[in-house]
Every structure is written in structure tokens, then in C-alpha cells.
């Protein structure tokens, strides 16, 4: 069995925005244009497209559109449960996945003898750190730098517009069918809220999501409540509406009394950072600063 290579790009367990790369190169040479690369999530696919890379395997997706470049590329299943046998048959040089799925996918990739890398898509800065590392690994440094420069200019201009404005206190609820958790600043949606200049009432933990009772949320007295979905957005938003209508405690929240409860777009506020973060930040700009 071949020796497995592992690249962990900006590992999620390191919350500080620094790059952490554990790279073990075999005899294959990046930069020759002949590497066979598989991407198992749509967020990862979009990065590969921006870096002008061909792919030999992509995920199935019923929500996010597949770039035209990869329309005819073999599909290997959903991001959380890629078809390992099919991946093995394709024999990619690298399989790239989001680091949020490392605990599920790492043992499977190891057992299959696949060479793999995990991208930190838990926040925007993590995504760009991963892009920097991919640029070096896959001989796409020029493309990676162009993406980094565009990001830094956008963020600089965006922040400048909101300098000196009072930070709004925000509670972020991430819904799953039948339940919900609180999103911290370490989650993707939390990082967007932070970039938009708001204060997360549950900042200060090293976790992305935490389970908190509603009595504790009430004590935090958020100015606004943002609701988003982990998956099945239609079902989750119906759950939120039902719970807010029937659970008596919500009527005591100042944000609810003032009508400051907002449902965020699933396509722009999902679990993984994507290049539509600009549209997501524009949405938050309207909610935080322009709605009145």
C-alpha cells in the first residue's frame, strides 16, 4: 500500500488565524499540471475553480450549482458521506475536504490509502489561509495571491464604512431539524457577523457551536437574533417560527419585542466559507445599519 500523504490546511482545532500545514510529499510533483485532484464538498470545488484547477471527482449537490467546468466530472456522493470505493477507483493524487468533517472522513481516507488534505472553511480568514497553502502546494501562487488581494481590499473598504458605529449585540441560532445550537464567532456565520462589526453575545469560547438554554440567552439581552440553518433550510425555518410562536420565553426577549429577529439565507450563511461571503456581508450591512 502506498504511503499516505496528509495536508491539514489551517487546522480547525487551532482557532488562532495562523496556518498549520502537516505535509508529507511522496514522489508526485505538484506544479506539473498532471495531478489528479478530487474535491468532496461544493465549497472546496469553488476554491479549485478559482485556482484554475481541473478535478477528477466532485460531490453531488442538490443546492449549490456545479461550475460548468466540472459538469461532466464523476460525482462521488455527498460531502459528509463520499463514496470511498469510487474515490479509490479514480485514484486521485489528493482528496480535499473541509476540516469540519475531519473526524468522520480521516479514518476512512486512511483506511482506503487515499492521500488527503483538509481545508479550514470554518471562517473567511481560514479559507484564505487554506487558499494560500493550496497555491504553494499546487503551483497556483499567482491565482492565490490575486484572491487574497481581492479579499483584503474588500474587507478594508467594508470595515471603513462602519468605523465608529456602535456594535450591535447579536445572538446567532444555527438550526437543525428538531433542534438548534448557538453559533459563536468561531463558526462561519459567526465570523461574518464579527466582520460586519457586531458583537456576538456568546463570544470567548474556542468552540464553533454551543448548547445554551433559553433562560441564559435571555440574560444576554441581545439587540438582535439571527436564525440560520445547518441543513434542510425550509424545515428548519418552519421549526424556528413554530418555536418562537409557541415557546413562551421568546416573547420576553427585547429583540423579539422590537421585531429584531432575522432569518438568514441558507445559500449565503451555511456551514462552510464560500466566495459569496461578500453578498452575505452585504445582507448583514442592511440588517445592522440600513434597515431603518
TrEMBL record:
One of its GO terms (cellular component) is membrane. One of its GO terms (molecular function) is heme binding. Residues 36-292 form the Fe/B12 periplasmic-binding domain. The keyword Membrane applies. Pfam families: Peripla_BP_2 (PF01497). Its cofactor is heme b. GO terms for biological process: cellular response to iron ion; heme transport. PROSITE patterns: FE_B12_PBP (PS50983), PROKAR_LIPOPROTEIN (PS51257). The keyword Membrane applies. Keywords: Cell membrane, Heme, Iron, Lipoprotein, Membrane, Metal-binding, Palmitate, Signal, Transport. It comes from the Bacteria. Residues 1-24 form the signal peptide. Belongs to the bacterial solute-binding protein 8 family. PANTHER family: HIGH-AFFINITY HEME UPTAKE SYSTEM PROTEIN ISDE (PTHR30535:SF36), VITAMIN B12-BINDING PROTEIN (PTHR30535). This is High-affinity heme uptake system protein IsdE. The lineage of its organism: Bacteria, Bacillati, Bacillota, Tissierellia, Tissierellales.
Amino acid at each position: 500500500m502506498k504511503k499516505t500523504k496528509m495536508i491539514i490546511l489551517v487546522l480547525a482545532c487551532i482557532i488562532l488565524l495562523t496556518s498549520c500545514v502537516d505535509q508529507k510529499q511522496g514522489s508526485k510533483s505538484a506544479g506539473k499540471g498532471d495531478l489528479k485532484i478530487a474535491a468532496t464538498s461544493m465549497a472546496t470545488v469553488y476554491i479549485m475553480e478559482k485556482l484554475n484547477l481541473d478535478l477528477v471527482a466532485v460531490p453531488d449537490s442538490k443546492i449549490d450549482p456545479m461550475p460548468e467546468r466540472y459538469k461532466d466530472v464523476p460525482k462521488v456522493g455527498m460531502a459528509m458521506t463520499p463514496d470511498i470505493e469510487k474515490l479509490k477507483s479514480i485514484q486521485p493524487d489528493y482528496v480535499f475536504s473541509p476540516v469540519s468533517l475531519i473526524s468522520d472522513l480521516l479514518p476512512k481516507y486512511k483506511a482506503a490509502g487515499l492521500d488527503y488534505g483538509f481545508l479550514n472553511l470554518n471562517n473567511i480568514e481560514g479559507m484564505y489561509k487554506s487558499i494560500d497553502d493550496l497555491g504553494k502546494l499546487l503551483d497556483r501562487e499567482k491565482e492565490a495571491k490575486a484572491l487574497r488581494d481581492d479579499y483584503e481590499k474588500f474587507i478594508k473598504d467594508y470595515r471603513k464604512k462602519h468605523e465608529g458605529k456602535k456594535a450591535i449585540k447579536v445572538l446567532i441560532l444555527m438550526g437543525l431539524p428538531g433542534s438548534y445550537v448557538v453559533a459563536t464567532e468561531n463558526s462561519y456565520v459567526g465570523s461574518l457577523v464579527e466582520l460586519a462589526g457586531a458583537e456576538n453575545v456568546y463570544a470567548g469560547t474556542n468552540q464553533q457551536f454551543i448548547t445554551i438554554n433559553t433562560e441564559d440567552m435571555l440574560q444576554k439581552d441581545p439587540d438582535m437574533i439571527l436564525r440560520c440553518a445547518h441543513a434542510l433550510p425550509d424545515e428548519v425555518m418552519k421549526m424556528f417560527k413554530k418555536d418562537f410562536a409557541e415557546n413562551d420565553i421568546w416573547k420576553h426577549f427585547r429583540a423579539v419585542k422590537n421585531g429584531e429577529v432575522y432569518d438568514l439565507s441558507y445559500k449565503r450563511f451555511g456551514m462552510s466559507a464560500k466566495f459569496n461571503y461578500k453578498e452575505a456581508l452585504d445582507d448583514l450591512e442592511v440588517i445592522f445599519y440600513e434597515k431603518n
